[in-house]
Design brief:
heterodimer; A: 225 residues; alpha+beta; OB fold (Dihydrolipoamide Acetyltransferase, E2P); Ribosomal Protein S8, Chain: A, domain 1; 3 domains; 5-stranded mixed barrel; 3-stranded antiparallel β-sheet; 5 helices; flat; B: 250 residues; Ribosomal Protein S5, domain 2; 5-stranded mixed β-sheet; 4 helices; 12 strands; globular
């Protein structure tokens, strides 16, 4: 994109610390880029949109995780990040009296959860007390680079909405780069293909339109058969 | 160190025809390894190295993790076939030392405090060595770190200066390193096209104070040229990618 040049770490972006946004750092009153990314400059702020990188949890994120360990007081969940998540039994509404954690969720079960809290030592606590959250026992998980997740969601969820209306599939995008899709197998195939296209062509112009076109064409092929 | 029977400077030119302040040809490819978070293949003259970066990720073994910042691990390793006489595989005294000083150079730019309890692993393999392999490795590692999207204050560019036949030459090759009087590898922390500080400095052999100052200036100029090439290599990859024409080696 011509309007968003690539910046490398250490590139000087501004000399007014007030405009510093995400992906930047300040030293001696100057604003520098923190990592490789696309420069997004507005009148009031500069920020760097990452092109790559691991998922770093932040409070309120919806994530998709895989249970790695079952303990007496909760579950250790792999959230595709340098940090493991912990889901205490008290945060799982499926837990009732006389049920053991083992019977509710076992190793390798997949869950949709929300990040409840992160302490300064990066101990991540998850919760399932939310409308979106549940254990998933069917459907498909697609893994992508977490930095590309905002493109899969689209502007105000436009991309997800398009998938839902065009194909009638269920889809939940985890901020950690895992996407759960469920529905007609052939339609899920189309979504999977489209998601990989989004991942590889993120940050190009008119992406939503091109993906919509792609999905419509594939759907047409499906109905034509 | 010195030997009178080998002439390294003939008619003001070096053995491979370079001037005193010429770098060897450099070739870089970014993102060559699919399983690594960031990677770079680099040729610097006859040096051939490949760097891979993983992380930030969980640290194993667990007890090595630092509760307030990320741990950076750097492994410099030479392949058995990288030198003329087969090198016994595995770490030795030399490669452990190089790993340590290189790690300290990298630690100066990586923002470790953003990732407590995690680790950033850097592996650099020397496939073919021809003097100055530690500088080539640092250049490759720096590019691989950028490719991995690791937050950093700037970049590292590294080059060596040697003293041969009583003159200072930039980026020595094998003959100059073996038969020269001194070899001084430098690495600089470069931010926004400016050298901010020295991240690595070693010296083998002897030079006078005046010569050292001159060597530093030569290395700075050389490092800036390498820095431009590093930037170019990264931008080339990502611009190509945004046009959807990337061809990865698997």
């Amino acid at each position: 994109m011509a309007s968003r040049p690539i910046v490398l770490p250490g590139e000087l972006l501004a000399s007014n610390p007030k405009v510093a946004g995400s992906g930047t750092y300040i030293e001696n009153g100057k604003v520098y880029a923190k990592f490789l990314g696309l420069l997004d400059r507005t009148d009031t702020s500069v920020r760097v949109i990452p092109l790559k990188g691991r998922y770093i949890p932040s409070v309120g994120d919806v994530v998709i995780g895989i249970v790695r360990e079952v303990a007496g007081n909760g579950w250790v969940v792999d959230i595709n990040s340098p940090y493991q998540g912990f889901l205490p039994v008290s945060e799982n509404p499926e837990m009732r009296q006389n049920r053991k954690p083992n019977d509710v969720l076992d190793i390798d079960d997949v869950i949709i959860a929300k990040v409840l809290n992160i302490d300064p030592k990066m101990k991540v606590t998850l919760t399932m007390k939310d409308r979106m959250c549940r254990a998933v026992r069917f459907g498909r998980i697609i893994g992508i680079n977490p930095a590309r997740v905002p493109r899969v969601i689209g502007k105000k969820g436009s991309m997800i909405r398009m998938f839902k209306t065009e194909l009638g599939v269920q889809i939940v995008v985890g901020k950690n780069g895992l996407i759960w899709v469920s529905g007609d197998r052939r339609k899920v195939n189309i979504v999977e293909e489209a998601v990989y296209i989004i991942e590889s062509e993120a940050h190009t112009d008119g992406l939503t339109d091109r993906i919509t076109e792609f999905v419509k064409r594939k759907k047409g092929e499906l109905n034509g058969q | 160190m010195d030997s009178k029977d080998i002439k390294l400077i003939i008619d003001g030119k070096r053995l491979d025809g370079r001037g005193f302040e010429d770098l060897r040809p450099i070739k870089m490819r970014v993102g060559v390894l699919k399983r690594a978070d960031g990677s770079c293949y680099l040729e610097m003259g006859k040096n051939k190295v490949v760097a891979a970066v993983f992380g930030p990720r969980e640290v194993h073994p667990r007890h090595l993790a630092d509760p307030i910042k990320a741990v950076v691990r750097y492994r410099y390793n030479m392949a058995p076939f990288s030198v003329e006489e087969r090198k016994r595989p595995g770490p030795d005294r030399r490669s452990v030392e190089i790993s340590k000083v290189s790690r300290e150079a990298i630690e100066a730019i990586v923002m470790k405090e953003l990732f407590p309890r995690s680790g950033i692993d850097i592996f650099v393999e020397v496939l073919q060595a021809d003097a100055g392999s530690r500088t080539a490795c640092l250049n490759a590692a720096s590019v691989a770190l950028v490719d991995a999207g690791v937050p950093m204050k700037g970049m590292i560019s590294s080059v060596a200066v040697a003293k041969v036949d009583d003159v200072l030459v930039l980026d020595p090759m094998k003959e100059e390193d073996n038969y020269g009087q001194a070899d001084i590898p430098f690495a600089f922390f470069i931010r926004n096209d400016r050298i901010e500080s020295i991240a690595l400095l070693q010296m083998d052999g002897r030079v006078s104070k005046e010569e050292f100052v001159q060597a530093l200036e030569m290395a700075k100029r050389g490092a800036m040229k390498i820095y431009e090439m590093q930037k170019e290599a990264i931008k080339t990859k990502y611009i190509m990618e945004s046009e959807g024409e990337v061809n990865e080696i698997e």
